[in-house]
Amino acid sequence: IVSALDPKAGPLVHLSGETLAFDLKSALEAQGFEVRRKILYRAVPARELPPAALAALREQRLDAVIFMSPRTARTFADLLDKHGAVTQGKRLVCYCLSQAVADELAPLRFTVRVAESPREEDVLALLDADSASS
Question: What is the pTM of this model?
Fold first, then answer.
């Protein structure tokens, strides 16, 4: 999309969260674009696993988890450790948006599946493929 735009046409607006995995503004400015970043939200990591989720995990009623960001995967891993639930978490299949997301789970040695490309559709396709083969 960017290659079809003219840097002289005026500024681009980048709507984002407070924390970024990739500095899009700098990358576009390096190509001659003027970019105005507007922060729309701030994600605050959870401090606890919800009791219902922890109970489902301990009772083996969860089979899989989807992770869309390295920060979310890291938070989940930290919370499992905090709650003493890493062992129960090892039975989960973790569907990850990218290798960077999966890398955050690597120390726990979970079963991970990484999307072919970092798109929501590709993560869901992994889940669908595994569901169809079971």
Answer: 0.78
